[in-house]
Structures are given as structure tokens and as C-alpha cells.
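Hi there, hope your week has been kind to you so far. Thanks so much in advance, here it is:
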Amino acid sequence: QVELVESGGGLVQAGGSLRLSCAASGRTLSMSSMDWFLQAPGKEREFVAGLSRVGDILYRDSVKGRFTISGDNGMNTVYLQMSRLQPEDTAVYYCAAYESSTDWVLKRVRYWGQGTQVTVSS
């Protein structure tokens, strides 16, 4: 079992920055990769950025050049540095973990965090 705990959300003005953290505990060696998702009010949860244990990185188009995903050794903590935030980035941000590269590609999430709210004011 893996537990994911997000932190770092909050209220920021447009153009500002936030750094989200996702701390993993438990059987973290079983994790192959970790992602960040967002869910805006009334919308489906959407992929934002992903990081594999071997260093593969993925971003959704709308955050390329503004967000950076990174992790410490062993992927015990994964970060999402968000810059030049816009009101449309407002959402609950969730951390997700996978236990195989196939699941990562297919976005079959094995573990979810509880989410952290990010609100960007105009």
C-alpha cells in the first residue's frame, strides 16, 4: 500500500507561482511513476504532468514552459513547480502513483492523494 499526501496549494494572483509537493509513504519501491492531475469545478480530472522512476517526463500542452515536475531520489517526494499561473489553472490538484510503466501509459492510476486546492485570482 502507498499513501500520497499533497501540500502547497493556496491562493495566488495571476502571474504568480506555487510549488506543490506530494509525499509518498509505504511501499514506495513498488511505484514506477507519479503524476499530477487537476480537477476544475464541474469538470473531469485531467492529467497535468508525469515523472517516471527512470526519468521520463510528460506535460499537458497547456502547462509546457510554465510547470516543472521533479522528484527526489526514490520518488519519495514529487514536486510540481507552477509559474505564470492563470485563473484557468484554478483546480484541485491530485497526486497519483502507478506500479507499472504500462499502467502509467494507460493512466490506470493505482493510488490517489486527497488533493490540494489551487486558486488563481485575476
